[in-house]
Every structure is written in structure tokens, then in C-alpha cells.
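Hi everyone, sorry if this is the wrong subforum. Our group has a chain we'd like a structural model of before ordering constructs, and none of us has done structure prediction before. Sequence below.
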Amino acid sequence: MLRLVLFALFVTALVFLLPACGRIQLQPAGPPIHEPVLSDREAVMADGHVLPIHRWETQEPTADVVLGVHGFGDYGRAFSVLSEALVASGLASIYAYDQRGFGATRQPGIWPGGDTLVGDLRSMTDLLRARYPERRLYLIAESMGGAVALRALTENPGLDVDGAVLLAPAVWGADTMPWYQRLGLWIMLRIAPGATFSVEAVDWLGFEATDDPEVMETLSEDPLVYSRARVDTLRGLTRLMGDALLHPHRLDRSVLVLYGLKDLVIPPGPVCAWWERLSEEAGDARPRIALYPEGYHMLTRYLGAEDTLSDIASWIDDPDRELPAGEELPLEEARDRVCALPPRGDWTGP
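Answer:
Right subforum, don't worry. Here is the predicted structure as C-alpha cells:
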């Protein structure tokens, strides 16, 4: 209740004290001017927009290829933690890119729109298929990247990959947010769409993405990691997460979903709502799901990340093999387990 009162006072103060901070800004993809091009350091999209590439290549000539899609506020360097588990062992080469509006791209902090993010992912997949036509191609997508991947995987046509690992995909749309969070975003969007909120301003809500102090320090010192987020960008993220939650889903065993039971960024309520919907629409198709009782949102960058990394490596090596570390459950059992978790922070349930 105290947090609710503080939030109401905070919004009221903003209404009276903040001047209008510009207008809503977007940077959607422009008209195509050439075919997408991939080099070792960057990918140039059809509209000429450049996406920086982060690459970790194994010397094994038949190794699989992994495409990494990062989360909100992060950038492609986030997948460096997978290099020891996948690259050093010869299992796979890793490519990750900075999504538009993030990392070292043009206009960082300005939201590109869900359609643009999905289009860029499709282009990256096509480019890697063309570069490595004889190798298996897997997708590993984290948080916001997971929401982008969910849309691409479930649209028609689907995404041309051999399989996908979704790390705590962001499915926390407006429909599953408490009313005062929706109200606050609605008010701020109208009075100050260009206002920004710092990462530190979110910490007091208890939304730590990891319990590893070294990771926290590294992220806080990295100039390419978001330290502030615009209101209109948060609105765009919310719409993307809502699309991921409400999009028709039929995910088979080629998709592995990983979720930490201590995740405070994507809390159990929206995950419960997503898995309820997935269970109703799945038919005979069921993704594989693994839970991590001590897992935080950044499942490859928390103190118990060796469990997640070993499971990802095992799955890449053989997608049908039993996972060595995570608690793998059928969809309905995993749903019941997550739906039974108590509320966290300001989460009030679907």
C-alpha cells in the first residue's frame, strides 16, 4: 500500500511540475533501397540502417550457428557469456546484433516499433541462412528479444530456424499490469513522452534482474547499456510485450522456454497468463519448459548461471536430450507451478 501511495504522489507531482517534454518519437524502418547485407562487423538492413554485429566463432567447420537477440536496455555483447559454453567447446558459433534503438545503433533510446524489430530479426535469420546453408541455425532470445522472437516464430510465415531458446520472454503486456501502472504510463505519455526514467529509479521497486554484484557493476559501467528509458519507448515496449502475450501460439518441441522462479522483471502473473493461453491453443504442440528455482531474470548472468548455460549447451548439442540442470516440466505442470507463486512487489495478478 505504501508503494501505491508513493506512486500516486509521484505521478501527481509530475503532472504539475513537468513541462511537456517534446513529442512521441519513433524510428520505424524506412522503404527498402537494397538487399540486406551481412559482414563480420555489421548488418545493413534493406532501408540502410546499420546493426552492429558481435561475433564469437569456433574453428569447428560443422558447428551450429546461434543468433542472439538481446533484451531491453542491453545490446549484443550480452551473449559473450555463452562463448565458453558454446564456442570454446566447439558446439556453435554465436552472432548477436544490437537491435534498433539499442547499443551502438543510430538514435539509441528511440523506439523502432515491434514490426521493425521483427523485420530485422527475419533479415538477420535470412542472412545467416545464406552464409551457413549447411549448418543448423538456432535462436537464443532474452526478455524483450524473446517477445520479438515469439512474434516472428508464430507469424505466417514462421521464422526459418531449426529451434529457439527463449530466456524469460517478455510477455508483461498492459492487460496484465496493475491499473496504476497503466494509468501512470497513460498520463506520462500525454504530458511528457520524452521524459526519461533512470535504472536507479526502478531499483527501489525491487526489480533486480540479477543477484550477481559483478554483473550489476559491469552493466552500470557500460556506456552502451541503457541507463535511462523514455516514456514513449516504455509504451512501445509494453505494446510489444502485449503482442507477444496475446499472439496466437503453437510452439512445438523445437522451442525451449527457460524461466527463473525469482524473476522480478517478468513476474509470475503474466507468465501464468501466457502459459494458460498457450495451453489452450497448443493442440498437440508443446514447447519444452525448464524452471530454475533460484533463477533471476538474467538467466545466463546470475550466480547460478552455470545451470542455465549447461542446459543451453546440452540442448544445442542435442535438442531431444534431457536437460542436466533445470527442472523440466510439461507445459501444464509448469503453468500450475508458476501460477501458484505468490505475488511479487507491486504485481497483483492477471
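For your construct planning: The chain has one domain: 2-339. Residues 2-339 form a domain with the Rossmann fold fold (CATH 3.40.50.1820).
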